[in-house]
Amino acid sequence: MVRGAGLVVLAAAMLVAAPRAARAQQSLEVAPPAPQSQPSFRPRPTPTAQPPLPPSRQLEEIPPAITPAPTPPPGIVPPPQLPLAPLPPPPPPPPASMLHAQPILPAVFRGCWDGRVRYLDSIERMYGAPTVGIWTPKTYRICYRRIGSKPFELTFSQVGVDPSTKIINPMGRMDLISTDGRDAARMRAQLHFDEYYASRRFAGLTFAVDEETILDCAVQGGGAMLVRGLVFGRRDGSPWFRASWHAVFARVGSLPE
Asked: Which of 13, 128, 185, 217 is the most buried (most CB within 10 A)?
């Protein structure tokens, strides 16, 4: 009887220990050991986001947006920011009597003066221009007189060249540039003529020649005028040569009344 009771107690103890062994076996099977080939590391903690600013602080931290000025299309000038000052009225036109006024020559120039330029002091052909031929003597007559009761005026009665078979249709004029009011003056003479070609290939054909001469004149005692001239020549409208000369012009005829 006692032996039977001991068996009952042993069976009950085995029943109580059986669930614990099962649970121990389950825990060992659920978490197997990690292989040694994989390194073990700890994940970095996630940074904690800062709490957002309150609405009032956000409005203070963000600057106001700047809207750029509209760009005008190409070719259109934008209107000025400030109004422009009105332009002053144009000056009145000069009197009609001043439109053609010339410097007044001193009385020592009154009368007519004749001159002839036979020789040159120097001559220079312009770069690339045709060859310059022999200088043809030029003739001048400068008259400073008055007609009737009109003021004394400078007239260019004759300007040209010595008679020559190679020059035709001479035309010229002269105007006064300036004077010192005593006995010196600067004048401009313009002479045009047609000259025949020297080459037989162009026999009977001509080319146009224009000579502009600046004359510096000074009246000396004894009825003589010393004149120095600077000539700029063109051939068919293109620069041709530059030359200089000096001569003595003599007074001719009687003084005008």
From this structure: 185
Return the pLDDT at 69: 58
Over its C-alpha atoms, the chain yields an Rg (Å, rounded) of 58
Cα separation, 98 vs 217, in Å, equals 25
What pLDDT is stored for residue 211 in this prediction? 95
pLDDT (0 to 100) of residue 19: 53
- How far apart are the C-alpha atoms of 192 and 206, rounded to whole Å? 13
Phi, psi of 135 (to 5 degrees): -65, 130
| CA dist., res. 45 & res. 202, Å (int) | 108
What are residue 189's phi and psi, to 5 degrees? Answer: -115, 135
Residue 77 phi, psi dihedral angles, 5° rounding = -90, 125
Read off the pTM. Answer: 0.58
pLDDT given for residue 206 in this prediction: 94
List pLDDT tens digits, range 44-94: 555 555 555 555 444 444 555 555 556 656 656 555 555 555 666 666 665
The C-alpha angle with vertex 123 and arms to 116 and 136, in degrees rounded to 5, equals: 40
Residue spans per domain, the chain:
112-252
Distance of CA 72 to the CA centre of its chain: 27
187-193 contacts: CB < 8 A, separation 24 or more?
187/142, 187/154, 187/214, 187/215, 187/217, 188/212, 188/213, 188/214, 188/215, 189/140, 189/156, 189/159, 189/213, 189/215, 191/138, 191/159, 191/160, 191/161, 193/160, 193/161, 193/167, 193/168, 193/169
Please, what's the b/e burial string for 186-222 (b: 16 or more CB within 10 A of its CB; e: otherwise)? Answer: ebebebbbebbeeeeeeeeebeebebebebebebeee
Is residue 123 classed as helix, strand or coil in its secondary structure? Answer: strand
